[in-house]
Amino acid sequence: MKRSFNSKTSSKNKYAVPMLIAALVVVILIGGLILIKDRAGSDTSALDNLPNYTEVEGKIVVDGLKYEKQPHLGSNTATIKVIEFADFKCPSCKKWTEKYMDQFIKDYVDTGKVEFFFMNFAFLDRDSYLAASAGEAIYKQSNEKFWDYVHKLYANQGDESEIWATEKFILKFVKNNIDGIDYAQFEKDLKNQTYMYDVKEDFKIAGSFGVNGTPQFMVNGVLLKDSSYESLSAAIDQQLGSASN
């Protein structure tokens, strides 16, 4: 009888453990599916408001660099005009701005040698376009505040491989970080994608001059082969030397 009782107990234990494991697996799977669904729904909502170049209306004619339309630093009487082509999602653009921008301004812009321009080359993803259009909306209100946006957005840059510069993120970021603008007008311009034509125009113009990545620099209309600070300084100094001869 004792043997029979032990046999029954052993049989119950034999099936109880696998059933418990199976139940736990089901619970984990259901929880995972709910989480995935929630994330997908959130991502889909964010993607709904992202722009697409193919949807931008208006014919773009490439007829020069259009310096007059670009955010700028320095005197318009400077003999050297430098353009940085950049994407707000680009980690290398963030690195250049944080490591070299202040020194560049001190050495070349504040001394009156260079007028410096920023030109969008938004190509990494659709939120690149939105971040660029936000910059354009701020620039249309204030050239000074545009440069504030540049520095602070790079400081808050997300992962290059992720969609992070969404409408929700940018609206909150600008509200909390950029003072001295008409926020209601900015919000309207961002949601209506008022300046997406300007972003696409920049992209088309830059591409026509051979720009194929970021950051890239142009000195008096000549696109540099690399984006190192040494190459940029050398190109500027060469132009300054030629001008003085």
TrEMBL record:
The chain crosses the membrane at residues 15-36. SUPFAM superfamilies: Thioredoxin-like (SSF52833). One of its GO terms (molecular function) is oxidoreductase activity. Keywords: Disulfide bond, Membrane, Oxidoreductase, Redox-active center, Signal, Transmembrane, Transmembrane helix. Residues 44-241 form the Thioredoxin domain. Pfam families: Thioredoxin_4 (PF13462). InterPro entries: Thioredoxin-like_fold, Thioredoxin-like_sf, Thioredoxin_domain. This is Disulfide bond formation protein DsbB. It comes from Paenibacillus wynnii.
